[in-house]
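Shall we go through a protein fold together, starting from nothing but its sequence? Please make up or recall a protein chain and show it to me in full. Go ahead whenever you are ready, and we will take it from there.
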Amino acid sequence: MITREKMQPGETQYFRFESDFVEQHLRCIPMIVRFKLDACGVKLKLAEWSRFQEKERKILATMPCSSQEEIDQYRSFLKLLILTRTGNAASLCQIEEFPAWADTTQVLPSLSAIAIDTGFSISLSQWTALNSLQRFALIKLCRPGHENANFPRAMKEFGFNGKEN
């Protein structure tokens, strides 16, 4: 099982690079929720997210999802919420046994390439110094098909120095 840093009940970590949509009633799915979605194996579409009430979005961001019991409760709550708000069953996805963000033995070549392309570099010691959510965010932000617009902002937020834009 992958170790996830335990957050205090009710605690939420939003990144500054997400501030534009977090401040607008959580109109997009923040990284903390995406992290929990991967943990519980539920695929949440933006159209489904937009049907949730703001307080429900905040619950999904703050609800614990570290231990197996918490993950199971999170999945059950989310599946019921999707069914209630959309009338559709939740789409499930495979839970990665060894997600890339948990690998502290190497920096993914694709992550290094995007970092270089955007004027940054990331060493193995810098990678291992990040917390799980930060590593998760960087990997999500550098995936193919992602606009990568927030990648440089995330790198700066996480303490990396790069070229001035």
In short: The chain has two domains: 16-92, 100-157. The longest strand covers residues 42-43.
